[in-house]
From TrEMBL:
A matching Pfam family: NmrA
The name this protein goes by in its record: NmrA-like domain-containing protein
GO MF: aldehyde dehydrogenase (NAD+) activity
Signal sequence interval, chain numbering: none
Annotated ranges, domain NmrA-like: 4-81
InterPro entries reported in the protein's UniProt record: NAD(P)-bd_dom_sf, NAD(P)-dependent_oxidoreduct, NmrA-like
GO terms for cellular component: cytoplasm
SUPFAM superfamilies: NAD(P)-binding Rossmann-fold domains (SSF51735)
Origin species: Phanerochaete carnosa (strain HHB-10118-sp)
Length: 351
């Protein structure tokens, strides 16, 4: 029997990570994959074994462990954190060692995000930009500042590809939405919820009325979790069928995840309408969060103002791989009410 492909997964229990792993588990070549996941929870690690995923219990803060696990893998799926530089450096060190020892050219698929396009903005919800980034415009992408969100990690990854000891690809999802349903969610392994919209919902429910940053005028792209998971598989399949050299990689290896865009106001209005439908308020019209509210619900005023930035992206490069996202911005708006209901249910079970 041919040797199996060792795959190291970081973030298997997460919203993106679990969704991607579940797709890999049902991939036509699944019986040729040998998964190892780094997991913090002992209970989830045990459950993952039932799906044929070996689990190592630990944190990606343990860089020695991460380095070793990366060295053992031909493919690393980095699905946990777009911002942890020491963790990515440990992965890259492991891949460099693998290359030096075995002559293998390992593959890294990492998760960043279109938050990278919010660099230097002080919009606070008050202005839409007409600057749109296209992932197939390599010059525009190369000019993103090193100080941009996630970019320090992405730059370290570009450098590894340039040095030639790994082939690297970066997926940048935007506002991911949809409550994920799959076998890992059913088994209680995976977080089925996203971040941005649920955070606005939580804050809105707490104040009894939909809230927004400023007037909610800036734009962000959106993408359904199923389409995001598809993108990882389509990228992986392209790398395998065409060969790693023949799929844009390194500095040319940015792949956005978007299938439409919305304003922040659109989301908040959707939350307001869901709250009216659920008898939680009389007025669907969102009002502006005060600084005190931003601090209370988002951790700090700066973190809160992130929901008032522009991030405008076109995923031409991702589509050129054959990616055909199915869900649209209308689906995103329709996903808000079930998300509000899920949030209420969670609150009830926590009481
Ligand atoms: N969701 C979005 O809309 C979106 C869009 C673009 C980019 N992103 C980025 O993608 C990344 C993943 O997002 P997500 O929505 O999937 O988040 P998530 O559901 O919170 O998943 C995070 C994953 O990372 C794991 N993790 C966290 N700290 C760890 C540690 N110290 N050691 C080992 N594992 C650790 C978590 O494990 P536990 O189960 O143990 O917590 C979980 O598996 C984030 O960097 C996020 O900024 C997200």
């Amino acid at each position: 029997m041919a040797e199996k492909t060792p795959i190291f997964v970081i973030g298997a229990t997460g919203y993106i990570g679990g969704s991607v792993l579940s797709r890999f588990l049902s991939h036509p070549s699944a019986n040729t994959f040998d998964f190892t996941a780094l997991v913090r929870s002992e209970e989830k690690a045990k459950k993952l074994e039932q799906f044929g995923v070996h689990s190592v219990i630990g944190s990606y803060k343990d860089t020695t462990l991460v380095e070793k696990l990366a060295e053992n893998a031909h493919l690393v799926l980095s699905l946990a954190d777009a911002d942890d530089l020491p963790a990515i450096q440990a992965i890259l060190k492991g891949l460099r060692q693998r290359h030096a020892k075995l002559g293998d050219l390992p593959i890294l698929i990492h998760t960043s995000g279109t938050g990278i396009l919010t660099e230097g903005q002080e919009t606070k919800g008050m202005a839409a930009t007409d600057v749109i980034y296209d992932d197939s415009d390599f010059e525009q992408i190369a000019n993103i500042k090193p100080t941009a969100l996630h970019r320090d990690v992405d730059n370290a990854i570009f450098e590894a590809d340039k040095q030639g000891y790994a082939r690297t690809y970066i997926i940048l999802p935007s506002t991911i939405y949809g409550i994920e349903k799959n076998l890992l969610v059913d088994a209680g392994i995976q977080n089925p919820f996203s971040v941005q919209i649920p955070m606005l919902i939580k804050a809105s429910l707490a104040r009894g009325r939909a809230g927004m940053v400023g007037k909610g005028l800036p734009f962000w792209p959106d993408v359904h979790i199923d389409d995001v998971a598809d993108l990882y598989i389509i990228l992986y399949d392209a790398i395998i069928t065409k060969g790693p050299e023949n799929v844009d990689h390194g500095v040319r290896g940015y792949y956005f995840g978007e299938n439409g865009e919305h304003t922040w106001y659109d989301i908040s209005k959707g939350i307001g309408e869901a709250m009216v439908a659920l008898d939680l308020t009389n007025d669907p019209e969102p009002t502006t969060f005060t600084d005190e509210e931003l601090e209370k619900h988002f951790g700090s005023v700066d973190d809160g103002n992130y929901s008032g930035t522009n991030s405008r992206a076109r995923a031409t490069h991702s589509r050129s791989l054959g990616w055909k996202p199915k869900y649209t911005t209308q689906d995103m708006i329709a996903s808000i009410k079930p998300e509000v209901e899920a949030n209420l249910k969670q609150k009830q079970t926590q009481q």
